[in-house]
Every structure is written in C-alpha cells, then in structure tokens.
Amino acid sequence: MSEQKPDPAAQIPPTVPQAPHPVPPAPSAADVMPPSPEQASGQPQPDAPPPAPTRRGMWADGVPDVSGYGGLTTEIVRPAGEPLPGGSWMETIGVRLDALVPGAISRVVWALGELTWHVPREKVAEVMRALRDDAHLRFEMCASISGVHYPLDAGNELHVVYHLYSYTHNRRLRVEVSCPDADPHVPSVVATYPHADWHERETWDMFGVIFDGHPALTRILMPDDWVGHPQRKDYPLGGIPVEYKGAVVPPPDQRRSYR
Q1: What is the C-alpha separation between 16 and 183, in angstroms, rounded?
Q2: Does domain 88-235 have CATH number 3.30.460.80?
Q3: 33 pLDDT tier (thresholds 50, 70, 90)
C-alpha cells in the first residue's frame, strides 16, 4: 500500500466571515474647536462690545453719496480725552466755575492740547455769564458758535460748540452743549456776547438749532423761504446746474453714482 499524503486544502480552516470594521463618526465642531472661555471657566462671560459705528462717503449712512467718495468708510471715534495736567489752570478754572454754578460741567475732555467742557443746555446761559464776568475766569471773547450733527448719537443728535478766549489770562476754552433732534432748543447767549447774534442765526440756518431768547432768529445764509437745514447729515444733496462756456455741470444729486 502506498502512503497517502494529506490534502493541503483540508488543513486550511474554513474562512469565517468577519463583520466589517465600524467607521468612526466624523468629529463634531465641539470635538475640533477649543472650549470657549465661558465653558472653560464655567462662568458666564460678558457680552462682546458692539462694533464701532462707521460712516460711508461724505454723508450719513443711507443717503446716496454721488460726490465721488462713495468708497470711503470711516470709523466714528469720539475723543475719550486724557487726564488733566495736575495743578494746571485748567483744573483751577473748573473748580472755580463749579463753585459759581454747581453742576455746570458734566464732562471734561482734554485732547490734542485743547480743553472742552460739556455743559447741560439749561445751564449754558448762566455758565457763559460766569465765564465772562468772574475775575478768575474772564473769557471776554466768544470767537465762534457752530453746530454739529451726530445722527447716531441718540438723544443728543445736535451739538452746539462755543469757542471762548480770555484776553486777560491768554487762555482758550471750548464749551459744548447738546440737545435731541426732537427738542432742538438751546438758550441764547446774545445777552452775554452780543455778537453771538449772527453765529446763532447761522447755526439755526444750517442745523436747525432753536436759540431761545434770541432777538431775531431768522435765516442768514439761505433765503427766508428755504426748507430744511443744509448742513445736517440727513439733508439730501441737491443744487442748481452751473453753466460754463459750452458746458453745464449738473447739481450733485443728478450726477452719476460712484458706488
């Protein structure tokens, strides 16, 4: 008898079907992103500050700018100011005015070498008299009165700025008051500074600030029947065509848009 050799196929164990390897799930955003400060500390975090307001073009947002600067975007930054130099005359006159008119200064801004006092509008006439007549202050000259329009400053959209100068002490001071667009009234200072008559008329004409007590608050630049106040930022652009030799330049609101 010949020896039988084992069958190689018989020595291979039968193949057992294997279950497919499970595919791991895709990582979630919580697994990939680091924990937030609130999650890491377990304490609620303060809300992020709102984005700084910006102004596009030469005018306020929402008003088409056809003057050629439509691509300009500017962040609106109000000066925060710096601490007053200790022992300076700026501290001295502030203490003096507060003694004469309590609560006269609501905010002090010292920036770029210029001093600004923010004064409540109901006290501006009394403040101006004290600044002119007191021997320690003596701001004899009101160089100018002008208006400013801040459409985004809710409740204080209209500002009036007074530039004062003291001949006696060689000092300059800026006084600023504000009023809401819904109640654009500020006391007149013509009784203290008579030449403020024309400055207040121009501020009324251009910005619509009503100076209570003014002797004759009428327009000074625009015709008497003009509607609106042209230097406000919500005033629409417009004008009349200007004719040159063989050419006509249309008013701004009829030129092509540069957006």
Answers
A1: 90
A2: yes
A3: low
